[in-house]
Amino acid sequence: MGKLQNRVAIVTGAGQGIGKAIALALAKEGAKVVVSDITDLIFDVAKEIEALGSEALPIKCDVTNPNDVNKMVKTTLEKFNRIDILVNNAGIYPFKPFIEMSEGEWDKVLNVNLKGVFNCTKAVVPKMVEQRYGKIINISSIAGAVVGFPQLAHYSASKAGIIGFTRALALELAPYGINVNAVAPGPIETPGTKILGKETLESFIKTIPLGRMGKPEDVANLVVFLASDDSSFITGQYIVCDGGYTLP
Ligand SMILES: NC(=O)c1ccc[n+]([C@@H]2O[C@H](COP(=O)([O-])OP(=O)(O)OC[C@H]3O[C@@H](n4cnc5c(N)ncnc54)[C@H](O)[C@@H]3O)[C@@H](O)[C@H]2O)c1
User: Which atom of ligand 1 has the smallest separation from the CA of 189?
Assistant: First the structure.
Protein backbone atom coordinates (compact mmCIF):
# COMPACT_ATOMS: atom_id res chain seq x y z
CA MET A 1 0.00 0.00 0.00
CA GLY A 2 1.34 3.42 -0.95
CA LYS A 3 1.23 6.42 1.38
CA LEU A 4 -1.39 8.11 -0.80
CA GLN A 5 -3.66 5.19 -1.62
CA ASN A 6 -7.00 6.45 -3.00
CA ARG A 7 -6.06 10.10 -2.53
CA VAL A 8 -6.96 12.38 -5.43
CA ALA A 9 -4.35 14.93 -6.50
CA ILE A 10 -4.29 17.79 -8.99
CA VAL A 11 -0.88 18.87 -10.27
CA THR A 12 -0.63 22.00 -12.43
CA GLY A 13 2.13 22.42 -15.00
CA ALA A 14 2.52 18.63 -14.96
CA GLY A 15 3.49 18.18 -18.62
CA GLN A 16 7.22 18.31 -17.96
CA GLY A 17 9.96 19.07 -15.44
CA ILE A 18 9.18 19.30 -11.75
CA GLY A 19 5.40 19.02 -12.25
CA LYS A 20 5.75 15.79 -14.22
CA ALA A 21 8.04 14.29 -11.55
CA ILE A 22 5.53 15.28 -8.86
CA ALA A 23 2.64 13.69 -10.77
CA LEU A 24 4.59 10.43 -11.18
CA ALA A 25 5.78 10.39 -7.55
CA LEU A 26 2.25 10.93 -6.20
CA ALA A 27 0.97 8.16 -8.49
CA LYS A 28 3.72 5.77 -7.31
CA GLU A 29 2.33 6.25 -3.79
CA GLY A 30 -1.13 5.26 -5.00
CA ALA A 31 -2.75 8.64 -5.68
CA LYS A 32 -5.13 9.19 -8.57
CA VAL A 33 -3.58 12.11 -10.41
CA VAL A 34 -5.10 14.88 -12.50
CA VAL A 35 -2.28 15.82 -14.87
CA SER A 36 -2.90 19.39 -15.91
CA ASP A 37 -0.98 21.75 -18.20
CA ILE A 38 -1.39 23.90 -21.31
CA THR A 39 0.55 21.39 -23.43
CA ASP A 40 -0.37 18.01 -24.96
CA LEU A 41 2.49 16.44 -22.98
CA ILE A 42 -0.11 15.69 -20.28
CA PHE A 43 -1.37 12.76 -22.38
CA ASP A 44 2.09 11.12 -22.35
CA VAL A 45 2.46 11.71 -18.61
CA ALA A 46 -0.99 10.17 -18.04
CA LYS A 47 0.12 7.08 -20.01
CA GLU A 48 3.26 6.79 -17.85
CA ILE A 49 1.10 6.95 -14.73
CA GLU A 50 -1.26 4.28 -16.04
CA ALA A 51 1.77 2.09 -16.83
CA LEU A 52 2.57 2.30 -13.09
CA GLY A 53 -0.85 0.84 -12.39
CA SER A 54 -2.32 4.10 -11.09
CA GLU A 55 -5.20 6.20 -12.37
CA ALA A 56 -4.57 9.42 -14.30
CA LEU A 57 -6.85 12.09 -15.71
CA PRO A 58 -5.16 14.44 -18.19
CA ILE A 59 -6.86 17.86 -18.39
CA LYS A 60 -5.75 20.81 -20.52
CA CYS A 61 -5.85 23.87 -18.26
CA ASP A 62 -4.31 27.32 -18.30
CA VAL A 63 -4.06 28.35 -14.65
CA THR A 64 -4.54 32.03 -15.58
CA ASN A 65 -7.99 31.24 -16.97
CA PRO A 66 -10.61 30.82 -14.22
CA ASN A 67 -13.00 29.09 -16.68
CA ASP A 68 -10.36 26.45 -17.46
CA VAL A 69 -9.62 26.02 -13.78
CA ASN A 70 -13.27 25.68 -12.76
CA LYS A 71 -13.83 23.18 -15.56
CA MET A 72 -10.81 21.17 -14.40
CA VAL A 73 -12.14 21.01 -10.85
CA LYS A 74 -15.65 20.09 -12.04
CA THR A 75 -14.29 17.28 -14.26
CA THR A 76 -12.11 16.01 -11.42
CA LEU A 77 -15.06 15.88 -9.03
CA GLU A 78 -17.28 14.17 -11.62
CA LYS A 79 -14.66 11.43 -12.04
CA PHE A 80 -13.21 11.04 -8.53
CA ASN A 81 -15.72 12.81 -6.26
CA ARG A 82 -13.01 14.31 -4.03
CA ILE A 83 -9.81 16.36 -4.12
CA ASP A 84 -7.23 15.68 -1.41
CA ILE A 85 -4.10 17.26 -2.81
CA LEU A 86 -3.47 20.38 -4.89
CA VAL A 87 0.05 21.05 -6.11
CA ASN A 88 0.36 24.57 -7.52
CA ASN A 89 3.42 24.00 -9.68
CA ALA A 90 2.76 25.81 -12.99
CA GLY A 91 5.22 28.65 -13.35
CA ILE A 92 7.36 30.59 -15.80
CA TYR A 93 10.74 32.28 -15.35
CA PRO A 94 11.64 34.47 -18.35
CA PHE A 95 14.92 36.17 -17.41
CA LYS A 96 14.79 39.94 -18.08
CA PRO A 97 16.74 42.87 -16.62
CA PHE A 98 14.34 45.06 -14.64
CA ILE A 99 15.38 48.16 -16.61
CA GLU A 100 14.16 46.51 -19.81
CA MET A 101 11.09 44.86 -18.29
CA SER A 102 7.72 46.00 -19.63
CA GLU A 103 4.53 46.19 -17.61
CA GLY A 104 3.15 43.41 -19.82
CA GLU A 105 6.10 41.13 -19.00
CA TRP A 106 5.66 41.84 -15.28
CA ASP A 107 1.92 41.14 -15.47
CA LYS A 108 2.41 37.88 -17.41
CA VAL A 109 4.72 36.38 -14.77
CA LEU A 110 2.56 37.54 -11.85
CA ASN A 111 -0.50 36.24 -13.64
CA VAL A 112 0.81 32.70 -14.17
CA ASN A 113 2.88 32.32 -11.00
CA LEU A 114 0.68 34.06 -8.42
CA LYS A 115 -2.80 34.64 -9.84
CA GLY A 116 -2.69 31.06 -11.15
CA VAL A 117 -2.13 29.87 -7.58
CA PHE A 118 -5.10 31.97 -6.45
CA ASN A 119 -7.35 30.61 -9.23
CA CYS A 120 -6.59 26.95 -8.55
CA THR A 121 -6.68 27.24 -4.78
CA LYS A 122 -9.93 29.21 -4.86
CA ALA A 123 -11.56 26.52 -7.01
CA VAL A 124 -10.41 23.59 -4.88
CA VAL A 125 -10.81 24.88 -1.32
CA PRO A 126 -14.64 24.59 -1.05
CA LYS A 127 -14.41 20.80 -1.61
CA MET A 128 -11.50 20.46 0.84
CA VAL A 129 -13.49 22.43 3.46
CA GLU A 130 -16.49 20.14 2.89
CA GLN A 131 -14.21 17.07 3.26
CA ARG A 132 -12.49 18.57 6.32
CA TYR A 133 -9.28 17.36 4.67
CA GLY A 134 -6.78 18.72 2.22
CA LYS A 135 -3.12 19.31 1.40
CA ILE A 136 -2.15 22.36 -0.63
CA ILE A 137 1.46 22.51 -1.75
CA ASN A 138 2.72 25.62 -3.50
CA ILE A 139 5.93 25.56 -5.50
CA SER A 140 7.80 28.75 -4.63
CA SER A 141 11.55 29.20 -5.20
CA ILE A 142 14.68 30.20 -3.31
CA ALA A 143 14.44 33.29 -5.56
CA GLY A 144 11.99 35.38 -3.62
CA ALA A 145 11.71 33.09 -0.62
CA VAL A 146 15.36 33.23 0.46
CA VAL A 147 17.75 35.08 -1.87
CA GLY A 148 17.75 37.67 -4.62
CA PHE A 149 18.20 36.65 -8.25
CA PRO A 150 19.14 39.20 -10.92
CA GLN A 151 16.89 39.43 -13.97
CA LEU A 152 14.06 37.79 -12.08
CA ALA A 153 12.40 40.73 -10.24
CA HIS A 154 8.93 39.75 -11.49
CA TYR A 155 9.51 36.07 -10.76
CA SER A 156 11.00 36.76 -7.31
CA ALA A 157 8.02 38.97 -6.44
CA SER A 158 5.63 36.20 -7.47
CA LYS A 159 7.50 33.52 -5.51
CA ALA A 160 7.78 35.72 -2.39
CA GLY A 161 4.05 36.35 -2.78
CA ILE A 162 3.46 32.60 -2.66
CA ILE A 163 5.17 32.41 0.75
CA GLY A 164 2.94 35.13 2.23
CA PHE A 165 -0.12 33.50 0.68
CA THR A 166 0.89 30.10 2.10
CA ARG A 167 1.20 31.48 5.65
CA ALA A 168 -2.09 33.40 5.61
CA LEU A 169 -4.02 30.53 4.05
CA ALA A 170 -2.54 27.99 6.48
CA LEU A 171 -4.02 29.98 9.36
CA GLU A 172 -7.42 30.35 7.71
CA LEU A 173 -7.73 26.70 6.67
CA ALA A 174 -6.22 24.97 9.71
CA PRO A 175 -9.66 24.69 11.43
CA TYR A 176 -10.83 22.60 8.45
CA GLY A 177 -7.99 20.06 8.59
CA ILE A 178 -6.26 21.54 5.57
CA ASN A 179 -2.46 21.88 5.53
CA VAL A 180 -0.93 24.55 3.33
CA ASN A 181 2.81 24.47 2.71
CA ALA A 182 5.35 25.61 0.14
CA VAL A 183 8.52 24.21 -1.34
CA ALA A 184 11.39 26.48 -2.34
CA PRO A 185 13.61 24.66 -4.83
CA GLY A 186 17.08 25.80 -5.81
CA PRO A 187 18.46 25.16 -9.31
CA ILE A 188 16.77 22.04 -10.68
CA GLU A 189 17.54 20.42 -14.04
CA THR A 190 14.34 20.63 -16.11
CA PRO A 191 13.43 21.42 -19.73
CA GLY A 192 12.80 24.97 -18.48
CA THR A 193 16.29 25.46 -17.02
CA LYS A 194 18.08 23.53 -19.81
CA ILE A 195 17.30 26.54 -22.04
CA LEU A 196 19.70 28.59 -19.88
CA GLY A 197 22.61 26.73 -21.51
CA LYS A 198 25.42 24.50 -20.34
CA GLU A 199 27.67 27.34 -19.17
CA THR A 200 25.08 28.88 -16.83
CA LEU A 201 24.17 25.49 -15.40
CA GLU A 202 27.84 24.63 -14.80
CA SER A 203 28.33 27.96 -13.01
CA PHE A 204 25.37 27.07 -10.77
CA ILE A 205 26.88 23.68 -9.92
CA LYS A 206 30.08 25.35 -8.68
CA THR A 207 28.02 27.18 -6.05
CA ILE A 208 25.96 24.20 -4.88
CA PRO A 209 27.60 22.54 -1.85
CA LEU A 210 26.22 19.09 -2.76
CA GLY A 211 27.98 19.48 -6.13
CA ARG A 212 25.12 18.88 -8.55
CA MET A 213 21.96 20.40 -9.95
CA GLY A 214 18.79 19.23 -8.27
CA LYS A 215 16.68 16.61 -10.02
CA PRO A 216 12.92 17.04 -10.43
CA GLU A 217 12.61 13.91 -8.25
CA ASP A 218 14.36 15.72 -5.36
CA VAL A 219 11.47 18.19 -5.27
CA ALA A 220 8.88 15.50 -5.95
CA ASN A 221 9.99 13.44 -2.92
CA LEU A 222 9.48 16.47 -0.67
CA VAL A 223 6.05 17.11 -2.19
CA VAL A 224 5.05 13.48 -1.49
CA PHE A 225 6.02 14.02 2.17
CA LEU A 226 3.95 17.24 2.36
CA ALA A 227 1.03 15.54 0.59
CA SER A 228 1.03 12.61 3.01
CA ASP A 229 -0.05 12.34 6.63
CA ASP A 230 3.62 12.00 7.63
CA SER A 231 3.61 15.82 7.64
CA SER A 232 0.22 16.30 9.30
CA PHE A 233 1.62 18.65 12.02
CA ILE A 234 3.37 20.92 9.49
CA THR A 235 1.51 23.90 8.06
CA GLY A 236 2.29 27.40 6.81
CA GLN A 237 5.93 26.52 6.18
CA TYR A 238 8.25 26.67 3.22
CA ILE A 239 10.92 24.02 2.90
CA VAL A 240 14.07 24.73 0.92
CA CYS A 241 15.35 22.01 -1.44
CA ASP A 242 18.58 23.37 -2.92
CA GLY A 243 21.60 21.17 -2.14
CA GLY A 244 22.81 23.80 0.34
CA TYR A 245 22.95 26.58 -2.28
CA THR A 246 21.49 29.28 0.01
CA LEU A 247 23.43 28.35 3.14
CA PRO A 248 25.42 31.34 4.37
N1 LIG B 1 13.76 24.44 -12.34
C2 LIG B 1 14.17 25.17 -11.35
O3 LIG B 1 15.37 25.39 -11.17
C4 LIG B 1 13.18 25.77 -10.39
C5 LIG B 1 13.66 26.34 -9.20
C6 LIG B 1 12.76 26.89 -8.31
C7 LIG B 1 11.40 26.86 -8.58
N8 LIG B 1 10.96 26.30 -9.74
C9 LIG B 1 9.52 26.30 -9.98
O10 LIG B 1 9.07 24.99 -10.22
C11 LIG B 1 7.96 25.01 -11.13
C12 LIG B 1 8.25 24.12 -12.32
O13 LIG B 1 9.46 24.54 -12.93
P14 LIG B 1 10.17 23.69 -14.11
O15 LIG B 1 11.59 24.05 -14.10
O16 LIG B 1 9.74 22.28 -14.05
O17 LIG B 1 9.51 24.42 -15.38
P18 LIG B 1 9.28 23.93 -16.88
O19 LIG B 1 9.29 25.16 -17.70
O20 LIG B 1 10.20 22.82 -17.24
O21 LIG B 1 7.78 23.35 -16.79
C22 LIG B 1 6.73 24.19 -16.40
C23 LIG B 1 5.42 23.66 -16.92
O24 LIG B 1 4.41 24.63 -16.58
C25 LIG B 1 3.54 24.77 -17.69
N26 LIG B 1 2.85 26.06 -17.70
C27 LIG B 1 3.37 27.27 -18.04
N28 LIG B 1 2.41 28.20 -18.00
C29 LIG B 1 1.26 27.58 -17.64
C30 LIG B 1 -0.08 28.00 -17.45
N31 LIG B 1 -0.43 29.27 -17.65
N32 LIG B 1 -1.00 27.09 -17.06
C33 LIG B 1 -0.65 25.80 -16.87
N34 LIG B 1 0.60 25.33 -17.05
C35 LIG B 1 1.54 26.21 -17.42
C36 LIG B 1 4.44 24.60 -18.90
O37 LIG B 1 3.68 24.27 -20.06
C38 LIG B 1 5.38 23.51 -18.45
O39 LIG B 1 4.92 22.22 -18.81
C40 LIG B 1 7.76 26.48 -11.51
O41 LIG B 1 6.78 27.06 -10.67
C42 LIG B 1 9.11 27.09 -11.20
O43 LIG B 1 9.04 28.46 -10.94
C44 LIG B 1 11.82 25.75 -10.65
Answer: 1
